[in-house]
Fold each of these.
Amino acid sequence: MRVECYEGKYHAVDSSDMASATPRRTGCARRCARPGRSVLEPVSRLTVTVPAGLQGDVLGDLSARRGRISSTTVLDDGRELIQAMVPEAELSHYVLDLRSLTGGRGVFDAAPDHYDIVPRRSSPRSPPKPRATASPTSSAPALDVACMIHPAGPGPGR
């Protein structure tokens, strides 16, 4: 999606990046709020290996991060292998949180898997803010948007 601003004026003293970014951000938010539009987020396939006694704590933590548990398996050495799909936005500090939960005995691997619709009711934070970038063909900055627009209908992964 591209948002363009018209009728804007630049003044060397009074103008700022914030003054030009605010209307673009508002335009993006209005566009994403239209019926039939959804904000998508990247979802990662997460594989976590933890000691058996800590499986419940890790499963609870993954559920709190909007994770969907795919499977749990007992390994030959007594550890538990947990596979889940977790939104990438929830994984930013996961390495530290897993280390804290397991006393440094848990390990995980995350790989991008797909995009899924952000549930409006369970997303307490706003989506990432768009970043303004210079456009090579125009003096006005272009917009690098954090949301994706797709036609109405079944979402990906459904």
Amino acid sequence: MSTTEVDVLPVRLEELDFVTPLAEPRKNGGERRRGVFITFEGIDGSGKTTQLKMLAKKLRTHGHDVIETAEPGGTAIGVQIRSILLDSKNRELCSATELLLMFAARAQNVEESILPALDMGRIVLSDRFTDSTVVYQGVGRGLGIEPVMTISRIACQGLTPDLTICMNIDVNTGLARALTRDMDKGVTETRMEEQALEFHQKVHAGYLELAKREPERVRLVDGVGEPEEIAGRVWDIVSRVVTSR
């Protein structure tokens, strides 16, 4: 390339700012009324999906406007990505691809569903969010937490949950539940459940560490007991957050 060709470039490389963040954290400013963003986390078979649905029903009986979403998925595009991520046939899927696909689905869900709902003042309940990627890909796959959070800042536009309910249950019990559920329902999205026991143990340890580091946001809930009993534990935590808004 000649000097003349370089001079006509619309932006010089040295003029680019590589320090400015690509996405600033989401702020609750202006006249917009901010809703409440609550996520459910936990190892496979922990009961988080059941508890999310029970909480959604209870919140609606109390007059709250609630939407439910799940990850990976949440949108038409996200569901297509989910089928790639969780199909047990895709054994060649490498860790980096898995990480990026997770965030591709999440970015679409944040932009298309979650942020608009929060801007309308609704309560958003999400079955998994970035914490899942931190522990499954960052810890379980060994990719590291820093790369996960760097991508999250861009894909999620700085959005973090107001509250995270983390269902705590031992790994063996959780996996047994998950595998039984998949067999009973003929589920084919079993790629994550089929990972080695050591992987799931790392994931569980990652969740415990998250709760230790962020005790105000990430609340551990004992996942052992009847669903109604566990739902009571969840409500004791959630009701305080919802009524304080």
